[in-house]
Amino acid sequence: MFSGIIQEVGKVKRISEYSGFAVFEIFCPKIAVDINQGDSVSVNGVCLTAEKVSSDTFQASLSVQTQRETNLGKIRVENCVNLEGSLKMGDKIGGHFLTGHIDFMTKLKSLNKRGGSILLSFEVPRTFEKYVVNRGSIGVDGISLTIAELRGNEVQIFLIPFTIENSNLKHKKSGDILNIEVDILAKYVEKNLSNLRF
Q1: What is the pLDDT of residues 28-60, one digit of tens each?
Q2: Which residues have CB under 8 Å from 52's CB, separation 6+?
Q3: CA angle (67, 56, 92) in 5-degree steps
Q4: Which residue has the higher pLDDT, 115 or 7?
Q5: How many other CB atoms are found less than 10 A from the CB of residue 117?
Q6: To which H or E segment does residue 65 belong?
Q7: What integer pLDDT is reported at residue 178 of this predicted model?
Q8: Are strands 80-85 and 154-159 parallel, antiparallel or unpaired?
Q9: In terms of residue numbers, what domain contains 167?
Q10: Which of 84, 85, 120, 128 lies 20 to 30 Å from 168 when distance is taken between CA atoms?
Q11: Domain assignment present for 93
Q12: Residues 91, 4: contact at Cβ < 8 Å?
C-alpha cells in the first residue's frame, strides 16, 4: 500500500531480460538505503518487488502483463520514474491510499501553464468515469493528485511547481502515456452498494 507521495525520481540504469521477464535496475540513492530485499516499491505507480538491493540501486522484474498493461513497458534506459516505498504502520498518509495496481493507461492531453498553476489533463475511459469525481483523488504515475474539474470524460488537475519539480512530470509532454489508478475506496463503495437489498 502506498500514499502517492513521491520520495525520489529514480533513473533506469539497466534493462535486461531473464526467463521472459524484463529486469529493471533503478538508480535511487536517496531511498535505496531504506529498501530491503522483498520490499514493495511503487514505480510510476506500479507495485514491484525489490529483488536485489545495493547502496544506490534496486532491481525488479516485470512480467509480460505488467509490460503490456502499464507504461513501464515503454520505459527505456535513462528514463526517469517516480518512486515510493510501501507504507509502514504509523506512517503519515500525505496523499490517499494507492494499491500499485494500474486501472488503465491514457495519453497526457496537456500540461500547460494557466495563471500561476500548471494544468494537467487526460481522458478517462467510459468504464472508469463512475470512479472519478470533482475534488476526488486519483493516482497519476504513482502521484496522489486532486481532480479540479471534470469536462465529460476529461480530467483536469491543477499542479503546483513543487509537484512538477519533484516528480517525473517535468519530463512529460503531450501524448506521453500515463499510468492511472482510481480511488480504491470508490470501488469498495460500489461493490457494497450493489450487494444491498432494498
Answers
A1: 999 999 999 999 999 999 999 999 999 999 999
A2: 37, 58, 59
A3: 80
A4: 7
A5: 14
A6: helix 64-69
A7: 98
A8: unpaired
A9: 104-194
A10: 128
A11: no
A12: no
